[in-house]
Write a structure and sequence with these properties.
Helices cover 34% and strands 24% of the residues.
């Protein structure tokens, strides 16, 4: 008689972000995490460079959620994005006026979207983190197009005042690097960070299939 084999327990997945774009990217990749928003005050965090700032913010979000009882035993994924332009880190614009000024400064130029990623296995305390960088080449929307885009409200909710998967897509001529990173999460980098923790992203697919 062949002995029965048992499947190893898979970790619960938690996304430490309120971003619907990040959640959608994970779902499209076969992962279905719970969402626990960190509540980190992003304006209170500083770092020497935009890339370091994105990473520090991601690590702060992951640590904040890891400290909560409801996250015990979970595998946490946290990200934060900023646009680097002229050496400055640009997050979400404060208002429509700032969003308009941003777009007028960005058009016809290129910036680097920096997204910090942090993964914490709360069952073991192990963590892995890194920043992914993607160059974004902006088109030259007219003043009227910029005004219409800002009036849509979309740029007020996204880092750098733009996104590849929304109304600003026609105003972006191209990118050099991972498109998902610009939207909010680099799946190739996530796979590598999971591997550092001894986890395969394909095992997480199986976990979702079993609980579907």
């Amino acid at each position: 008689m062949t002995p029965m084999t048992t499947q190893p327990l898979r970790p619960r997945l938690v996304l430490a972000s309120a971003s619907p774009a990040r959640l959608n990217l994970l779902r499209q990749a076969g992962l279905v995490p719970e969402v626990i928003v960190s509540g980190v005050d992003e304006d209170a965090v500083t770092a020497p460079t935009p890339a370091e700032l994105a990473l520090v913010l991601a690590e702060a979000k992951a640590a904040a959620v890891a400290a909560r009882p409801e996250a015990a035993g979970a595998l946490l994924i946290a990200c934060d994005s900023v646009l680097e332009l002229d050496g400055e880190a640009l997050g979400k614009p404060a208002d429509a006026e700032e969003a308009t000024a941003r777009w007028k400064a960005m058009r016809g130029r290129a910036g680097v979207l920096q997204t910090g990623h942090c993964v914490i296995d709360t069952a073991t305390g192990r963590r892995a983190s890194a920043t992914a960088s993607t160059t974004v080449r902006f088109g030259e929307p007219t003043d009227a197009e910029i005004a219409a885009y800002v009036a849509s409200g979309e740029p007020l909710h996204v880092a750098g005042a733009f996104t590849l998967d929304g109304r600003s897509a026609p105003f972006i001529d191209g990118i050099d690097g991972d498109a998902g990173n610009v939207i909010g999460l680099s799946l190739p980098l996530l796979r590598r960070l999971l591997a550092e923790l001894g986890l395969s992203i394909t095992d997480l697919w199986a976990a979702q299939a079993e609980t579907a």
